[in-house]
Amino acid sequence: DSRYCLLLFLASSVATASRIQATFDYGWRHKLYDPPNTPVQCVFDGSLTGMVCDENGTDLQYTPQGRLVAQDCEAACCSWGDCSGYAFSESDWHSQCFLSFTKGPKCRQPGQNEKPTVLQGGMCTKRLAFPQDWAYLHADFDDQAWDLVDVPHDSVINGTYAEQYDNHHGSLPRNVSWYRKHFRMPSEWQGQGASYLHFDSIFHLVTVWINDVYLGVFHSGYVPVRIPLHNLSALNYGDKENVIAIRADASFGSEHWYSGGGLYRNSYVIHTTDPVHIAQDGVYAPSEGTGASFTPSVEVVNTDQAHAAVEVKANFLLFDGAQQIQSCSSDGNVADALVLQANCSVANAKLWSIRAPNLYRLVVNISRDGNVIDSQEVMVGFRKTKWTGSKGFALNGQHTKLRGFCHHEDFAGVGVAVSPR
Predict the structure, then answer these.
(1) By C-alpha distance, which of 49, 60, 52 is closest to 104?
(2) Which of 289, 297, 284, 283 is nearest to 343 (CA)?
(3) Is 153 in contact with 28 (CB distance < 8 Å)?
(4) Per-residue model confidence as pLDDT tens digits over 237-274
(5) Which residues pair with 121 in a beta bridge?
(6) Taking the model in full, what pTM does it have?
(7) Alpha carbon distances (Å) from 291 to 152, 227, 282, 385, 387
(8) Is the pLDDT reported for residue 27 higher than 70?
């Protein structure tokens, strides 16, 4: 229950004096598919089917080719509120999806002995507002009968294998799934600093509500989703619980591999004690070169509602194991967001290579009035890379063969739900 979730905040967090990162992985309720009798959100007139369309015109925007079907193309258009129509085509070796974001693409009837370019397509004639009356999104909905799951969780992998489903997707049916979680926020966080819910990734088209409040839609299934909580007036603190509802639509996609669905990566609650803090993925440590000219940077954000400019200083500390070998700094005034960059130099740095993967630890401290208000660290390995047409790739001056690469994720029937090592 939500009291258990609050204990998890405290027991499983990674904390510094200025930042807390706690797991949000446990105690989710999960259910497949939308509520019964959910109306079709978009209606297309089919007017582009069998037509010849100007695929090079400005009226059509091409989405990446892949082993998709017409339903994927239609669903993609429906997911974008300003998409006016779609055109799906297919050849012997790939399929294509074109989306229109104007009044309509330039299309015509095929001439004599001319093949149509559009296998299926049409203009959107009816688009329903997102159903705010869905029972699943409301905080007072009784979800006790739903499955209890922990994340990472793949909503597709436990489906029934069948020949009619795409074999590139493991012969498993794609689906829409819902996740709900009851949680409480520590009372001491109210009005202090900044708080976020962070999801390493959710597949595919994601819609989020907290306490019945619509927070937005997220279109990519391969990037993190971060939701600010400190500016959410509907959020409760202390003994009163909150309910987050997430709809993950994995019913369409262009992947030619098994992509799964749902909350397939880890999730966290992040809290900083000061409204001025390091942004998401805000630390950048360039690794190209020998370290002789090292220019790390950090993005700092100010979430204080007054947005008054605050003077801050960024200290960059480089460690080789436990020994500090270099420090440099940069300062500035941040009202909304600011990138601070420093010029450092590392003498005789040990280079990273395949056989000797030497790494250094970069600690970034943000201070105000002499006090550290946020801190993060990343690992960095210095190396020299070069490509030439005659010799190919060289690492630190040595010719190096690249044996394969990671094209996409695929876990051969075990699902995509994976935690960090």
Answers:
(1) 60
(2) 297
(3) yes
(4) 999 999 999 999 998 876 778 889 999 999 999 999 99
(5) 87
(6) 0.87
(7) 37, 36, 20, 13, 20
(8) yes
The pLDDT value given to residue 32: 95
Q: Which two tokens stand for residue 80?
A: 């974008």
Q: pLDDT tens-digit profile of 28-83?
A: 999 999 888 788 889 999 999 999 886 544 344 554 444 567 888 888 888 888 88
Instruction: Identify residue 218 by its one-letter amino acid code.
Output: F
Place of tokens 């004096």: 17
